[in-house]
Design brief:
With about 100 residues, this protein is mostly helical. It has a domain of about 60 residues. Helices cover about 75% and strands about 0% of the residues. The protein contains three helices and no strands.
Length: about 100
């Protein structure tokens, strides 16, 4: 008799994917701090690992969740890059305003 592993999480693949895409949307709108999103992505990755170890995922679910997490990580990186670009532009503008003609 084959025994099924005991699930270590009650999270469903559909629920986790929906959460990740919701977080990615919020991050892309600038509503979430990129560092916070990065930490959430790590936690979501651990949840995904638990689901994989419990053999809870079909190949389709696994692919969908990995794509969702990649989307979340790329969104956080893009938002962080945008924040850095804006900060650099502000510094350059401040430097230009403080420059004295010779």
């Amino acid at each position: 008799m084959k025994r099924h592993p005991i699930a270590v999480t009650e999270t469903t693949p559909e629920g986790l994917a929906a959460l990740v895409y919701h977080l990615a949307h919020g991050a892309s709108q600038g509503q979430l701090d990129p560092e916070f999103v990065r930490k959430l992505a790590k936690r979501v990755g651990k949840e995904l690992e638990a689901m994989e170890e419990a053999d809870m995922l079909s190949p389709h679910d696994k692919t969908q969740l990995h794509q969702a997490i990649n989307t979340l990580c790329h969104t956080a990186e893009a938002e962080e890059g945008a924040m850095l670009t804006k900060a650099l532009e502000r510094l350059r503008a401040a430097d230009a305003g403080n420059a004295r003609p010779v």
